[in-house]
Amino acid sequence: MTVNPTIRGFAIIILIAGVVTALGLEDILGSLFLVIRIAFIVAIAFFLFTLWRSRREEISMWSGRSRIVFYGAAVLALVNLALAFFLSYPATGLEAVVFFAVLVACGFAMWRIWRDEHTYGY
User: Fold this and answer.
1) From CA 25, how far away is CA 19, in angstroms rounded?
2) How many other CB atoms are there within 10 angstroms of residue 23's CB atom?
3) N or C: where does the chain have the smaller number of CB atoms within 10 Å of the terminal CB?
4) Residue 107 contacts by C-beta under 8 Å, 6 or more apart in sequence?
């Protein structure tokens, strides 16, 4: 007899939640989530570093204003992520709106600078 994969997945989640509750592992689970948050921030920073490293010669040829805006937006996005993960948990509605607004503004600034610096002879 085969069990629907969705039902099997929910059963595994319920089993894990039951074990955590029965053994009182909430503190360990909280510590594990903190380690996962830190690893996520480090992974994002490493990805941005490798992206920068592969294109740093090209970026160094941009104007000073473009470099400052591009790097400033990247740093602001990282700080926004770090603050959201470590300071404002759980987030209220306004904090979530501000978080996503800052991320969108940083992404738009970086995209706009990238587009302005890559005219491809137009």
Assistant:
1) 8
2) 9
3) N
4) 73, 77
